[in-house]
Amino acid sequence: MEQVKKGKKRRGFTKEDGKAYLMLLPYIILFSTFILVPVVIAIGLSFTYFDVINKPSFTGLLNYITLFTQDEVFLKYVLPNTFLYALIVGPGGYVISFLLAWMLAQIQPLPRTILALCIYTPSMLGGVFIGVIWKTIFSGDQSGWFNSILLRLGLIDTPIQFLLTSDYFMLIMIIVSLWSAMGIGFLSMISGILNIDQELYEAAYVDGIRNRFQEIVYITIPSMKPQMFFGAVMAIVNAFNMGWIGVTLSGANPTPGYSGQLITNHIDDYGFLRYEMGYAAAISVVLLLVVYGFNMAAGRLFGDND
Protein backbone atom coordinates (compact mmCIF):
# COMPACT_ATOMS: atom_id res chain seq x y z
CA MET A 1 0.00 0.00 0.00
CA GLU A 2 2.80 2.40 0.87
CA GLN A 3 4.44 1.73 -2.50
CA VAL A 4 1.15 2.45 -4.30
CA LYS A 5 0.76 5.72 -2.41
CA LYS A 6 4.32 6.67 -3.23
CA GLY A 7 3.65 5.88 -6.89
CA LYS A 8 0.65 8.23 -6.89
CA LYS A 9 2.62 11.02 -5.26
CA ARG A 10 2.76 14.05 -7.50
CA ARG A 11 6.25 14.77 -8.75
CA GLY A 12 7.71 18.24 -8.41
CA PHE A 13 8.56 20.76 -11.11
CA THR A 14 11.69 19.53 -12.90
CA LYS A 15 14.26 21.16 -15.13
CA GLU A 16 12.77 19.31 -18.13
CA ASP A 17 9.36 20.81 -17.36
CA GLY A 18 10.95 24.26 -17.36
CA LYS A 19 12.51 23.64 -20.76
CA ALA A 20 9.18 22.44 -22.14
CA TYR A 21 7.35 25.55 -20.90
CA LEU A 22 10.14 27.72 -22.28
CA MET A 23 9.68 26.16 -25.72
CA LEU A 24 5.93 26.72 -25.47
CA LEU A 25 6.34 30.34 -24.37
CA PRO A 26 6.34 31.89 -27.91
CA TYR A 27 3.14 30.03 -28.77
CA ILE A 28 1.52 30.99 -25.46
CA ILE A 29 2.39 34.66 -26.04
CA LEU A 30 1.08 34.68 -29.61
CA PHE A 31 -2.06 32.71 -28.72
CA SER A 32 -2.83 35.00 -25.80
CA THR A 33 -2.12 38.18 -27.77
CA PHE A 34 -4.03 37.42 -30.95
CA ILE A 35 -6.75 34.98 -29.81
CA LEU A 36 -7.37 34.77 -26.07
CA VAL A 37 -7.18 38.49 -25.23
CA PRO A 38 -9.32 39.63 -28.23
CA VAL A 39 -11.97 37.02 -27.36
CA VAL A 40 -12.09 38.15 -23.74
CA ILE A 41 -12.30 41.81 -24.83
CA ALA A 42 -15.10 40.99 -27.31
CA ILE A 43 -17.09 39.20 -24.61
CA GLY A 44 -16.65 42.18 -22.31
CA LEU A 45 -17.66 44.69 -25.00
CA SER A 46 -20.76 42.66 -25.82
CA PHE A 47 -22.28 43.86 -22.54
CA THR A 48 -21.69 47.52 -23.36
CA TYR A 49 -22.61 50.29 -25.76
CA PHE A 50 -19.41 51.42 -27.47
CA ASP A 51 -19.26 53.81 -30.43
CA VAL A 52 -15.43 53.94 -30.65
CA ILE A 53 -15.38 57.63 -29.66
CA ASN A 54 -16.86 57.56 -26.17
CA LYS A 55 -15.99 55.18 -23.36
CA PRO A 56 -17.95 51.90 -23.27
CA SER A 57 -21.07 52.12 -21.09
CA PHE A 58 -22.38 48.96 -19.43
CA THR A 59 -25.78 47.85 -20.76
CA GLY A 60 -25.98 44.27 -19.44
CA LEU A 61 -27.80 41.84 -21.72
CA LEU A 62 -29.43 44.59 -23.79
CA ASN A 63 -27.39 43.81 -26.94
CA TYR A 64 -28.35 40.12 -26.83
CA ILE A 65 -31.99 40.88 -26.09
CA THR A 66 -32.09 43.35 -28.99
CA LEU A 67 -30.39 40.86 -31.31
CA PHE A 68 -32.91 38.06 -30.72
CA THR A 69 -36.07 40.13 -30.30
CA GLN A 70 -35.80 43.36 -32.29
CA ASP A 71 -33.20 42.94 -35.02
CA GLU A 72 -35.45 42.01 -37.94
CA VAL A 73 -32.58 41.79 -40.41
CA PHE A 74 -30.78 39.29 -38.20
CA LEU A 75 -33.87 37.16 -37.53
CA LYS A 76 -35.38 37.31 -41.02
CA TYR A 77 -32.31 37.24 -43.25
CA VAL A 78 -28.96 36.79 -41.50
CA LEU A 79 -29.73 33.77 -39.33
CA PRO A 80 -31.57 31.71 -42.00
CA ASN A 81 -29.00 32.66 -44.66
CA THR A 82 -26.08 31.73 -42.42
CA PHE A 83 -27.41 28.29 -41.51
CA LEU A 84 -28.54 27.53 -45.07
CA TYR A 85 -25.17 28.57 -46.43
CA ALA A 86 -23.18 26.75 -43.73
CA LEU A 87 -25.19 23.53 -43.98
CA ILE A 88 -24.59 23.38 -47.75
CA VAL A 89 -21.06 24.76 -48.07
CA GLY A 90 -19.68 23.11 -44.91
CA PRO A 91 -20.68 19.46 -45.49
CA GLY A 92 -20.63 19.93 -49.27
CA GLY A 93 -17.09 21.29 -49.33
CA TYR A 94 -16.04 18.64 -46.82
CA VAL A 95 -17.39 15.73 -48.89
CA ILE A 96 -15.95 17.15 -52.12
CA SER A 97 -12.56 17.63 -50.42
CA PHE A 98 -12.51 14.01 -49.31
CA LEU A 99 -13.62 12.63 -52.67
CA LEU A 100 -11.07 14.69 -54.59
CA ALA A 101 -8.34 13.73 -52.12
CA TRP A 102 -9.25 10.06 -52.42
CA MET A 103 -9.27 10.17 -56.23
CA LEU A 104 -5.93 12.00 -56.38
CA ALA A 105 -4.40 9.42 -54.06
CA GLN A 106 -5.11 6.74 -56.67
CA ILE A 107 -2.92 8.29 -59.39
CA GLN A 108 0.82 8.75 -59.91
CA PRO A 109 2.76 11.30 -57.81
CA LEU A 110 3.55 13.82 -60.57
CA PRO A 111 0.01 14.31 -61.96
CA ARG A 112 -1.30 14.12 -58.38
CA THR A 113 0.91 17.04 -57.35
CA ILE A 114 -0.08 19.14 -60.36
CA LEU A 115 -3.80 18.50 -59.92
CA ALA A 116 -3.64 19.06 -56.15
CA LEU A 117 -1.96 22.42 -56.73
CA CYS A 118 -4.63 23.39 -59.28
CA ILE A 119 -7.43 22.42 -56.87
CA TYR A 120 -5.80 24.14 -53.89
CA THR A 121 -4.95 27.41 -55.68
CA PRO A 122 -8.48 28.93 -55.57
CA SER A 123 -8.46 28.80 -51.77
CA MET A 124 -5.29 30.93 -51.73
CA LEU A 125 -6.31 33.41 -54.43
CA GLY A 126 -10.08 33.35 -53.88
CA GLY A 127 -10.48 37.12 -53.62
CA VAL A 128 -8.58 37.73 -56.85
CA PHE A 129 -10.45 35.04 -58.78
CA ILE A 130 -13.83 36.16 -57.46
CA GLY A 131 -13.12 39.80 -58.23
CA VAL A 132 -12.02 39.07 -61.78
CA ILE A 133 -13.27 35.73 -63.09
CA TRP A 134 -16.57 35.12 -61.31
CA LYS A 135 -17.76 38.73 -61.60
CA THR A 136 -17.00 38.49 -65.32
CA ILE A 137 -18.87 35.20 -65.63
CA PHE A 138 -22.00 36.56 -63.93
CA SER A 139 -21.76 40.13 -65.18
CA GLY A 140 -25.18 41.69 -65.74
CA ASP A 141 -24.56 42.85 -69.31
CA GLN A 142 -24.04 41.11 -72.65
CA SER A 143 -20.31 40.79 -72.00
CA GLY A 144 -20.97 38.48 -69.06
CA TRP A 145 -20.08 34.94 -70.06
CA PHE A 146 -23.18 33.30 -68.64
CA ASN A 147 -25.52 35.97 -70.02
CA SER A 148 -23.79 35.70 -73.40
CA ILE A 149 -24.38 31.94 -73.52
CA LEU A 150 -28.04 32.27 -72.51
CA LEU A 151 -28.60 35.00 -75.13
CA ARG A 152 -27.00 32.93 -77.89
CA LEU A 153 -29.14 29.93 -76.98
CA GLY A 154 -32.23 32.12 -77.05
CA LEU A 155 -33.15 31.26 -73.45
CA ILE A 156 -33.38 34.93 -72.45
CA ASP A 157 -34.08 38.19 -74.28
CA THR A 158 -32.30 40.62 -71.94
CA PRO A 159 -29.27 40.11 -69.70
CA ILE A 160 -30.00 39.04 -66.12
CA GLN A 161 -28.53 41.05 -63.26
CA PHE A 162 -27.22 38.00 -61.41
CA LEU A 163 -25.16 39.95 -58.88
CA LEU A 164 -27.61 42.78 -58.25
CA THR A 165 -30.83 40.87 -57.56
CA SER A 166 -31.75 38.55 -54.71
CA ASP A 167 -33.15 35.77 -56.93
CA TYR A 168 -29.83 34.13 -57.81
CA PHE A 169 -27.35 35.69 -55.40
CA MET A 170 -27.27 32.99 -52.70
CA LEU A 171 -26.97 30.21 -55.30
CA ILE A 172 -24.01 31.98 -56.91
CA MET A 173 -22.40 32.47 -53.50
CA ILE A 174 -22.71 28.75 -52.77
CA ILE A 175 -21.22 27.78 -56.15
CA VAL A 176 -18.26 30.13 -55.72
CA SER A 177 -17.73 29.01 -52.12
CA LEU A 178 -17.67 25.31 -53.02
CA TRP A 179 -15.24 26.09 -55.83
CA SER A 180 -12.84 27.77 -53.39
CA ALA A 181 -13.38 25.38 -50.45
CA MET A 182 -10.46 23.04 -51.21
CA GLY A 183 -8.03 24.47 -48.68
CA ILE A 184 -5.80 23.11 -45.94
CA GLY A 185 -8.39 20.50 -44.98
CA PHE A 186 -8.18 19.10 -48.51
CA LEU A 187 -4.38 18.82 -48.26
CA SER A 188 -4.59 17.13 -44.86
CA MET A 189 -6.97 14.52 -46.28
CA ILE A 190 -4.57 13.71 -49.11
CA SER A 191 -1.79 13.32 -46.55
CA GLY A 192 -3.96 11.07 -44.39
CA ILE A 193 -4.95 8.80 -47.25
CA LEU A 194 -1.39 8.47 -48.57
CA ASN A 195 -0.07 7.51 -45.13
CA ILE A 196 -2.47 4.61 -44.56
CA ASP A 197 -0.67 1.26 -44.30
CA GLN A 198 -1.41 -0.64 -47.52
CA GLU A 199 -1.32 -3.93 -45.63
CA LEU A 200 -4.61 -2.95 -44.00
CA TYR A 201 -6.31 -3.01 -47.39
CA GLU A 202 -4.80 -6.38 -48.24
CA ALA A 203 -5.95 -7.84 -44.93
CA ALA A 204 -9.41 -6.31 -45.37
CA TYR A 205 -9.90 -7.96 -48.77
CA VAL A 206 -8.85 -11.27 -47.26
CA ASP A 207 -11.46 -10.76 -44.51
CA GLY A 208 -14.26 -10.16 -46.99
CA ILE A 209 -14.28 -6.56 -48.27
CA ARG A 210 -15.48 -6.69 -51.87
CA ASN A 211 -15.43 -3.16 -53.33
CA ARG A 212 -13.98 0.35 -53.05
CA PHE A 213 -16.98 1.72 -51.16
CA GLN A 214 -16.52 -0.80 -48.34
CA GLU A 215 -12.80 -0.05 -48.45
CA ILE A 216 -13.47 3.65 -47.84
CA VAL A 217 -16.01 3.05 -45.07
CA TYR A 218 -14.17 0.33 -43.14
CA ILE A 219 -10.50 1.15 -43.77
CA THR A 220 -9.82 4.61 -45.21
CA ILE A 221 -12.01 6.81 -42.99
CA PRO A 222 -11.30 5.01 -39.67
CA SER A 223 -7.54 5.06 -40.43
CA MET A 224 -7.43 8.83 -40.98
CA LYS A 225 -9.69 10.13 -38.23
CA PRO A 226 -7.28 12.92 -37.17
CA GLN A 227 -7.20 14.30 -40.72
CA MET A 228 -10.97 13.91 -41.07
CA PHE A 229 -11.45 15.79 -37.81
CA PHE A 230 -9.09 18.56 -38.88
CA GLY A 231 -10.83 18.82 -42.24
CA ALA A 232 -14.22 19.01 -40.51
CA VAL A 233 -13.05 21.82 -38.23
CA MET A 234 -11.63 23.78 -41.16
CA ALA A 235 -14.82 23.25 -43.18
CA ILE A 236 -16.96 24.53 -40.28
CA VAL A 237 -14.79 27.57 -39.66
CA ASN A 238 -14.67 28.46 -43.37
CA ALA A 239 -18.41 27.98 -43.81
CA PHE A 240 -19.14 30.55 -41.09
CA ASN A 241 -16.36 32.92 -42.16
CA MET A 242 -16.95 33.44 -45.88
CA GLY A 243 -19.32 36.39 -45.85
CA TRP A 244 -16.67 38.36 -47.74
CA ILE A 245 -17.58 36.39 -50.87
CA GLY A 246 -21.01 38.03 -51.07
CA VAL A 247 -19.51 41.50 -50.52
CA THR A 248 -16.88 40.88 -53.20
CA LEU A 249 -19.46 39.67 -55.72
CA SER A 250 -21.97 42.46 -55.12
CA GLY A 251 -19.51 45.19 -54.21
CA ALA A 252 -21.66 46.26 -51.26
CA ASN A 253 -22.55 45.46 -47.68
CA PRO A 254 -25.44 44.74 -47.18
CA THR A 255 -25.76 42.42 -50.16
CA PRO A 256 -28.70 42.89 -52.59
CA GLY A 257 -31.97 42.45 -50.70
CA TYR A 258 -29.97 40.87 -47.85
CA SER A 259 -30.03 37.70 -49.96
CA GLY A 260 -26.38 36.90 -49.23
CA GLN A 261 -26.14 38.54 -45.83
CA LEU A 262 -24.32 36.24 -43.42
CA ILE A 263 -23.53 36.75 -39.76
CA THR A 264 -20.00 37.98 -40.54
CA ASN A 265 -21.50 40.63 -42.84
CA HIS A 266 -23.81 41.68 -40.04
CA ILE A 267 -20.81 42.06 -37.74
CA ASP A 268 -18.97 44.19 -40.30
CA ASP A 269 -22.11 46.26 -40.89
CA TYR A 270 -22.51 47.23 -37.23
CA GLY A 271 -18.84 47.23 -36.31
CA PHE A 272 -17.17 49.04 -39.21
CA LEU A 273 -20.01 50.89 -40.95
CA ARG A 274 -22.20 51.98 -38.02
CA TYR A 275 -19.44 51.84 -35.38
CA GLU A 276 -21.68 50.12 -32.85
CA MET A 277 -18.86 48.00 -31.51
CA GLY A 278 -20.73 46.70 -28.47
CA TYR A 279 -23.55 45.32 -30.60
CA ALA A 280 -21.08 43.91 -33.15
CA ALA A 281 -19.21 42.21 -30.29
CA ALA A 282 -22.46 40.57 -29.12
CA ILE A 283 -23.02 39.18 -32.62
CA SER A 284 -19.42 37.94 -32.64
CA VAL A 285 -19.95 36.08 -29.36
CA VAL A 286 -23.06 34.41 -30.80
CA LEU A 287 -21.04 33.35 -33.85
CA LEU A 288 -18.28 32.02 -31.58
CA LEU A 289 -20.78 29.88 -29.66
CA VAL A 290 -22.34 28.53 -32.86
CA VAL A 291 -18.96 27.58 -34.34
CA TYR A 292 -17.90 26.05 -31.02
CA GLY A 293 -21.07 23.93 -30.96
CA PHE A 294 -20.48 22.60 -34.47
CA ASN A 295 -16.83 21.87 -33.67
CA MET A 296 -17.88 19.91 -30.59
CA ALA A 297 -20.21 17.84 -32.77
CA ALA A 298 -17.35 17.22 -35.24
CA GLY A 299 -15.13 16.19 -32.33
CA ARG A 300 -17.65 13.61 -31.19
CA LEU A 301 -17.92 12.24 -34.72
CA PHE A 302 -14.25 12.10 -35.72
CA GLY A 303 -12.33 12.70 -32.49
CA ASP A 304 -10.61 10.06 -30.40
CA ASN A 305 -13.36 9.02 -27.99
CA ASP A 306 -11.54 6.01 -26.58
* Average pLDDT taken over every residue: 88
Largest sheet: 2 strands, antiparallel
Give, in order, the helices and strands: HHEEHHHHHHHHHHHHH
Q: Structural class, from helix and strand content?
A: mainly alpha
Uncertain residue ranges: none
- Please count the beta strands (DSSP E, at least 2 residues each): 2
Radius of gyration: 25 Å
Going across the major beta sheet, what is the strand order? 1-2
CATH architecture: Orthogonal Bundle
The quaternary organization reads as: single chain
CATH class: Mainly Alpha
Number of helices: 15
Strand content: under 5%
What is the CA–CA distance across the termini? Answer: 30 Å
What is the CATH homologous superfamily assignment? MetI-like
Instruction: State the share of residues found in helices, binned by percent.
Output: over 70%
Shape: flat
